# Entry
Amino acid sequence: MRDEKKYGMVIDLDKCTGCGACMVACMAENNVPFKEDESNKLDSITWMRVYKLTNEKPFPEADICYIPRPCMHCEADHGHSPCVSVCPATATDYSLRTGIVSQIYSRCIGCRYCMVACPYHARYFNWWDPVWPSDMEKYLSPNVSPRMRGVVEKCSFCFHRYQLAMDKAFLEKRRELKENEYQTACAQACPADAITFGDLNNPEHAVQQLVRPDRKNGGRTKHPRAFRLLERLGTNPKIYYLSSREWVRRAGDNYLKKENKTLSGRST
Amino acid sequence: MNINRRSFLSFVIGSAAGTTLSPLPWKMQDDSAIWSQNWPWVPVPKDGEANYTHSTCTLCSGHCGITIRKIDDRAVKIEGMKGHPVNDGGICILGLSGLQLLYGPSRVKTPLRREGKRGEGKWKKISWDTAISEVAYRLVELRSKGQSHTLGFISGSEQGTITALSKRFMTAYGSRNFLQTPSMDDSYAMVLNLMQGVDAQAGFDFENTDFVLSFGSGIIEGWGSPVRMFRANSHWRTNGGKVVQIEPRLSNTAAKSDKWIPINPGTEADLAFGLAHVIIKQSLYDRDFIDNHSSGFDHWKKRVLDEYHPGKVAKTTGIDNSTIISLARDFARRSRPLAICGKGQGKTPGSSGEFMAVHALNALVGSINRKGGVWAVPRPGYIDWPEVKMDKTAAKGLQQRRVDGAGDKKYPKSGSLLNRFFKMIHSKEISPIQALLVSDANPRYTLPDSKTIKEVFDKIPFVASFSSFMDETAANSDLILPNHIYLERYEDVPGVTGLQKPIVSLSRPVVKPQFNTKHVGDVIIGLAKQLGKGTADAFAWENYENCLEKTMGKMWKTLIEAGFWTDPNFKKPKWDKILDFSSGKFAFLNNNTSIDYQYRPVKLEGEPTSFPLTLIPYDSMRLANGFIGDPPFVIKTVEDTVLKKKDSFVEINPKTARAFSLSEGSYAVLTTLKGSARVRIHLFDGIMPGIVAIPSGLGHTAYDKFLSGKGVNVNELIGSVEDPVSGLNAAWGIRAKLNKT
Amino acid sequence: MDNALIPKEVKRCPFSQFIILLGPVVGVLLLGVFAMSLVWLKGLNQTNMNDAYGFAAWIWADLTVIALGGGAFFTGFLRYIIGKDELKNIINYAVLIGVICYSSALLILGIDIGQPLRGWFIFWHANVHSMLTEVAFCLTVYLGVLIIEFVPLIMENRQIDRVPFFHHLGHRMHEIMAVFAATGAYLSFFHQGSLGGVAGVLFGRPFAFREGVFIWPWTFFLFTWSAAAVGPCFTMLITRITEKITQKKLVKENVIQLLAKISGWMLTTYIIAKIIDTWYWAAVTAPSKGFTLMDFYSNNPLYGIWILVVEIVIFGVVPAAILIIEKGRRHPILFITAVVLAVLGVCLNRWVMVLQVMAVPVLPFEGWPMYFPSWQEIATTMIPVTYGIVFISLAYRYLPIFPQEQELNPMGQMGPGEQEKPSILSDRKLRSAET
Ligand SMILES: Nc1nc2c(c(=O)[nH]1)N[C@H]1C(S)=C(S)[C@@H](COP(=O)(O)OP(=O)(O)OC[C@H]3O[C@@H](n4cnc5c(=O)[nH]c(N)nc54)[C@H](O)[C@@H]3O)O[C@H]1N2
Ligand SMILES: Nc1nc2c(c(=O)[nH]1)N[C@H]1C(S)=C(S)[C@@H](COP(=O)(O)OP(=O)(O)OC[C@H]3O[C@@H](n4cnc5c(=O)[nH]c(N)nc54)[C@H](O)[C@@H]3O)O[C@H]1N2
Ligand code: SF4
Ligand code: SF4
Ligand code: SF4
Ligand code: SF4
Ligand code: SF4
Ligand SMILES: [Mo]
# Structure
């Protein structure tokens, strides 16, 4: 299958500064709305959310680490991502061509079953009508439609950028994209260059070289610094994290006490 | 009517089929779907031609190159400019939000004159001609009374043609009271002046260093040029460079560093001397540099060896003897070590003693003017205007002393002392400043000891602001003459904080001005022309753009084409450029000045008995704390352990919490000598017991509903402490207490 | 005033009294309708749901109401398929309760979704992999079936029955009722199961996830089983309450006893299955995902292990034991205790499978979110209850719901004329004669 791509990310937590630029790059790119008070994080739309982890040790052994969390574009078995398989209206779908989990706002009926299904809290509901102070409507990008109240939205791997790049490639009579032709807004903005984006199936792409995912084995990696969030659930996420700290790597999944030689992290 | 089975079934099937086949239900369903997908109140962004403009971000002194994506004449996205020497495509959270400032609700849309009392929020829209004439009228009046020296000008920008125009205006008008907002840049400039004898900007060759010893500098919290520092930090992660972070709180920088060493705050200089002690004792210093390029070493060395034994330093700093010794060795044995200071984002200057101690540490290992070290970067010298021909009034006004005392006997090396400026006015019954112009600055919010600052403002009879936004200072002024924001105007942007190379970038209009605003350069030129011939002659340009283009000369073409200018031949400055003393040597101790800069720790305000805790501010990339308030996108990223609804959280160690019976999320009153505020508690294991850390950048009272009224402004709680050498503010905290409510 | 509508040979309270008693209930119902309108007009921001609690009080009410309405399908199944003929004396009421439960359930779904106008996308753009699709389809079709089962009863209203068309319509429908009942039972087995599947398939939520057979997780079967067990208990409970309020016996004891016995055995087998399921989940499924049982029940202010104990022992084993022992189910107090506990058990189970599923943190660095419904949610959740009361009152008043009512409450000394047209006066007389 020549066409089959599997776009994914490798996020180097040793480099990530927790600055939040990826969050805002995403909001600015994707017409994400905002409200007067966004301090209730349970109804604040952040396709990309940077979590702060702590190792729960006392001063001065305390340590913190930031972990940016876009949608994992879970593949599970044959694209049966937790969220995709449950959506009654087929408003979210797994593309076998790109590995991207889409979200069709105008199809979504807002039942929120997908949110219940997603263990990463990567999905957000529009509890409110999106409202921009009138002049601010000027900065809205025509490439991403603003969402109406009552539907779910989430990180799309900036799918419109893929479409624009593909359009351009077709005009130039090409069927393949170069690595730098399609990059997500967060990866592009990250001032620490912590995010690498590309095709996990393509040996020429940096993401593939960084983690060398095992295609036959749910994309598992043997890289000593790499881990994925909640790998044990079998969601086969396409976001890989790198950390040289053992406690950070363990904070990415759940372990039984007997497996747990070091402390796992909890957020503050 | 009798229904049999047959007619019953036909009835049921018939009616079902009839309804289904009629267009009604289908049409209604279709309509409902379409309608619910196109609610008229959800905007549909207009499509159009995509195009890109390069410019420079001036939201902080990082001065990143930016590329703005536009659809027709709408700017829709700001991105980092690829290939720019500062940020090469990267961009920070604030820079990304620039369009929310451009199109945001806190813009001042037209010149405004105050109606009612100051700060009441009642304004009258006026024309530009009226606005400029009103300022001119005030200034002419002062001049005619022989009080030109009572005009003050506070400017946020440090260099470039806008600053030069403002200064020139003040000279032609006849006042020396031109002030700039201070930062660690001023402290570093002071150090270079005292130890190297040059007027230069400190540059750090981070890209080539292999060991960074940071005395509380927020390398990834926004210190220096934020994006450049992020990139440097990532570079160290891959090439094995090490970072050791010294500060009392586990900041992001500390967490990302290779080693975090908590220290009793305020004792950083002691540690620097302690390290020097070990390095000298163990003969690990750079003999070549000491022998050939320095003076005063023996005297300095004696003092260090006598007074800063690691055992003693361990007591003051709270850091183990053995840690000090091994740190000193690690530092000195690296091939290209570099020590830096300037706490957090470096927006407050610091104690000169501390800065000098750290600089001396660099000298000790030879990290002055070498690869991976500290460089003195010459200030760009392209502004070459003819001298102002002063008229009599101006000449007389310029003989008066500056209100802040900068350049006088006490602080001969200082150029501008903003905190002292306010302190002096405060101490006088009648304000020595009768009119104040504020540009690119919001001192009413950003300066410590807010209460004093506000009282001073209330004392000054006339305040005009050039702010583009309804910030705290603008909201409390008499007249607002709104400037275009950086995305609507031309401006030369020289230098980048901490960069080791000279660079000049260009901000240019990305979109046409969105409102009835005017370039501050044009306003100044316009004002000058109304103040009489002498003043007008000094401003012989048609307008600002014309002035800029002429001033930039040959550089202009490059700036327009590439967006920035760098000197292709620039390498490291020559020794004679960075050491300007007659001796041509680096001065560990400087006999030419009468200043005894033996290090004296900054004494915090407040007595430990009544204020048992130490309050320190901390900085975050997610909270713009100066120049600009957090735009909605940025405030959205602030964690709910920092800001929840309208409450600020302070961080304390769980041990401290126990001592004061406080728990996670509980409310408390935080009190200092300067004021008190209701805060909530966040327990954090990464902070030294006894310390209370408060985020800076909250507590705005102006701007819009997205920012205003959220949290506490640390400046309401903190004061300023005059540095004995520079006169700049050297306070890094204040003593405090927490009472449960 | 409404005498002409009241079935023959039964007595009903005066109309004015009926209105006065029903008034407050209608008031609460109207408040619910107001809250519902607010939600439709202003959106789901009227609730206290959030991104961590995407399903909340309403979905709990939905699942609960459907389980409780399970009396309809299971009684129908017993009567029409198994052939327990006595149950014809309670089937009307079971169907009525079913109609109420299922119509409320669909209404709630219509309120709960963010885009009610697009609700039909579930059918139009159906995703066959989704349990919710299965739920929506079965629920809608089954409600249709229930209505068909209920319509003949409406036709039996005295006035309606007079119209020959309706008379014959009702008659014909009766004839084919077994087919509908069978279809209904079949559909119900599935959708009760799919509701269980809603939680059980969530492989991203170890608290809910269960292995199973083919596409069905164990919760699929547990939900069907528990609805079959508890649905009849709810029918019996409502019957008892109705009897208490109307102060008369409406269904013969042998009918109740039969249903109680069957429920008891269903509950017993269910609770055994539930215990095995819980054990396997705690010992095998959860640990394979890195969780111990106690991870699901600690570090939060509400969800403790007590929930599991209460659900299985107090709300499961205890009522099951009472109902399978003849002495227990014959003892009026024990009987009522058992059906109440069983009903509470299913309520708690559905709560846990909806709310706790979301509260349990899965990402190790997240905490437990807590939630309390807004008044709009509470008022809306009250709709099924108030609307149920109103519906039952109307149906009881005007329809011959209980075939045994006349027999159990003979209209003694009444003259034929008075029976035709009971007046307020005669009714009063009657009551004073009774007391
Ligand atoms: N995101 C963002 N970035 C910015 C800006 C912005 O507004 N937002 N502004 C830009 C500007 S204008 C500048 S000048 C830079 C400055 O940037 P930084 O140097 O990064 O900023 P500050 O906020 O001044 O850092 C203040 C820290 O210094 C500590 N401090 C106070 N007194 C002393 C002292 O005596 N000694 C020492 N060692 N530390 C002390 C305080 O505790 C505080 O943590 O930031 C630039 N970057
Ligand atoms: N507590 C505390 N105080 C500090 C600092 C600190 O870190 N903490 N930092 C110090 C430092 S380093 C600095 S540089 C100063 C900065 O402090 P100030 O310069 O006093 O304050 P800013 O908020 O930077 O003010 C910039 C003003 O320019 C306006 N503005 C924004 N964009 C434009 C524009 O394009 N054109 C014009 N004309 N105006 C614009 C803003 O609305 C604001 O009114 O604060 C100093 N004071
Ligand atoms: S932008 Fe980069 S460094 Fe900043 S939080 Fe996101 S991933 Fe981390
Ligand atoms: S992270 Fe969540 S939303 Fe994204 S694909 Fe996985 S389950 Fe779906
Ligand atoms: S909320 Fe929308 S996307 Fe999610 S399951 Fe429901 S219909 Fe599908
Ligand atoms: S990939 Fe695009 S949509 Fe996803 S988090 Fe990054 S910027 Fe947002
Ligand atoms: S670091 Fe400073 S200059 Fe660079 S983008 Fe951010 S605010 Fe603008
Ligand atoms: Mo600054």
User: Anything to note?
Assistant: Chain B touches chain A through 78 residues (CB under 8 Å).
